Amino acid sequence: MSSLSTPAIVLRRIEYGDFDLILSFLTWEKGKICAIAKSARKSTRRFGGILELFAALDILCSSGRRGGLPVLQEAVLKQPFAAIRASIVHTAYASYWAELIDGWSEEGERQPGLYGLLLHVLTELSCTRTPADVLSIFFQIRFLVLSGHGPNLRTCSRCRRAADRIEGADLTFEPARGGIVCGDCRTAGPGRLTLSRGTLKQLQWLETMDLSKAGRLRFSPAAIAESLAAMEAFVPYQMGREPRSLAFLRKIRKPQATR
């Protein structure tokens, strides 16, 4: 790219040398990109302290010399989302979402659906209109669907029996099998989780619901616990590792802190 002007959200920032920052952005035009902000830590006049995690910006980047990182030339703050960074729990949730995108997305691949999803959950989290834990359930399942790794929530992942034909009040969810399994196909040992039929229906709804309706999300405490357990087991299995931000989130999360 010779130059790029696009809305962007800061996913990660790393101090580089004495004065520079290396930034990872999710952009509207190019998906995930990395760029270097020269002298960003030395001069407050150039970027004015706006290159903070989760901030929504309009950025202008130019190509780096000799094939190096693009150089951030200009940045205009659109949404600071400072309220998120004022809460350690909300920061932990937003960091988890940002790490998933930064670690799982290919650079330079335009993903407007993912950009819209992240902007939506950050907006809701900043305004505290929807509980953080419910937003995280919504983000994780939609992120998985958008990335092509969504769990199978409609049929047994092994024999393909429809969920409404599986007997019992509860269903078994096995991350290693890719989703729900019937009683005949479930395996013995660790790794099995339980989803009530009510929780399963809510997760199915989240897979396809319009973002404009996400503010109507209502989960019982039991459904939140089941859904978080399922998504936070499924995501690391798909990634092949546990995100560092998820381990931190689990340490600090308390039921009363996510409301």
* Structural shape: elongated
Give the SSE order as H and E letters: EEEHEEHHHHEEEHHH
The amount of beta strand, in percent, is: 15-25%
Which structural class fits the helix and strand makeup?
A: alpha+beta
Q: Termini, distance in Å? A: 43 Å
CA-atom Rg in angstroms: 20 Å
Helix content: 25-40%
Poorly predicted regions: none
Largest sheet: 5 strands, antiparallel
Question: Overall mean pLDDT score?
Answer: 92
Strand count: 8
Strand order of the largest sheet: 3-2-1-4-5
Please report the number of helical segments: 8
What does this structure look like?
The chain is α+β, with helices and mostly antiparallel strands. Helices cover about 35% and strands about 20% of the residues. It has eight helices and eight strands. It has helices at about 45, 80-85, 90-105, 110-125, 130-145, 195-210, 220-240, 245-250, and strands spanning about 5-15, 20-25, 30-35, 55-60, 70-80, 170-175, 180, 195. The strands form two sheets. The chain has a five-stranded antiparallel beta sheet with strand order 3-2-1-4-5. Strands 7-6-8 form a three-stranded antiparallel beta sheet. A hairpin with a 4-residue loop joins β6 (about 170-175) and β7 (about 180). α3 runs antiparallel to α4, α3 (about 90-105) runs antiparallel to α8 (about 245-250) and α4 runs antiparallel to α5. It is elongated. The model has no long low-confidence stretch (mean pLDDT about 90).
Fold blueprint:
Elements: E1 3-16, E2 20-27, E3 31-37, H1 44-47, E4 56-62, E5 71-79, H2 82-85, H3 88-104, H4 112-127, H5 132-146, E6 170-174, E7 179-181, E8 193-196, H6 197-208, H7 221-239, H8 244-252
Helix pairs in contact: 3-4, 3-5, 3-8, 4-5, 5-6, 5-7, 6-7
